[in-house]
Amino acid sequence: MGLLDYFRSNQPKSSANVAKERLQILVAHDRATRGQPSYLPQLQQEILAVIRKYVDVDLDAVSVNYEQEDSREILELNIVLPDVPSAPRI
Amino acid sequence: MGLLDYFRSNQPKSSANVAKERLQILVAHDRATRGQPSYLPQLQQEILAVIRKYVDVDLDAVSVNYEQEDSREILELNIVLPDVPSAPRI
Fold first, then answer.
1. Range of the domain at A76
2. Span B2-51, pLDDT tens digits
3. Considering the domain boundaries, does residue A15 fall inside one?
4. Could you tell me how far CA B41 lies from the centroid of its own chain?
5. B24 near A3, Cβ under 8 Å?
6. Which residues neighbour A8 within 8 Å (Cβ) at sequence distance 6 or greater?
7. Complex-level ipTM
8. What is the pLDDT of residues A16-59, one digit of tens each?
9. Is residue A13 part of a domain?
10. Is any Cβ of chain B less than 8 angstroms from the Cβ of A11?
């Protein structure tokens, strides 16, 4: 719920002037025990593979942030999607 | 970057006392054009399938929020992971 509030407060509602198709994915992992190997980098590759089944996204258009502190890891994917035509071509 | 700041400010750093393994996934989609069918519900199923390759998570442990407003959709998955032993069983 807090994340939704964050999006509401930080993102401008009138994004029509930007007119960019964007996808933002955020994965946060709170670990109960430290020292375990992280599976988020592998998870990232598989999530991207899933997304590419839905949208024709170039990997150059994906920016990735990965951070780790104490028992929390955060993976952030920001994807600028290609422009889509507003009406189907006939 | 903003999302990372959000996580840092809102989450207690000393989550060791909670000791729960948690995974939170957030997908935000800004659409350039309205009226397109959403693929996020299908994407949700596939992301969950990917996660279940890494962790043995019961679907009962997944709570889902989906919101749509104007050209923005937000899908939020909150997953409580099963307790893991701190040392391998021999």
1. 34-83
2. 445 545 544 544 444 556 889 999 999 998 877 778 899 899 999 999 99
3. no
4. 13
5. yes
6. none
7. 0.73
8. 455 688 999 999 999 887 777 888 989 999 999 999 998 888 88
9. no
10. yes
Residue A43, token pair as written in the block: 């998870």
- Domain-embedded: residue B67: yes
Give the pLDDT of residue A85. 58
* CATH code of the domain covering residue B31: 3.30.1070.10
Closest-CA distance, A7 to chain B, in angstroms, reads: 9
Instruction: Assess if residue B2 is contained within a domain.
Output: no
Distance from the B40 Cα atom to the nearest Cα atom in chain A, whole angstroms = 9
User: Chain B, 15-44: which have a CB under 8 Å from a chain A CB?
Assistant: 15-16, 18-33, 36, 39, 42-43
Handedness of CA A33, B74, A65, B12 (dihedral sign): negative
Q: With an 8 Å Cβ cutoff, are A23 and B27 in contact?
A: yes
- Whether residues B3 and A2 touch (CB distance < 8 A) is answered with no
Q: Which stretches of B11-82 are DSSP H helices?
A: 40-54
Structural domain total, chain A: 1
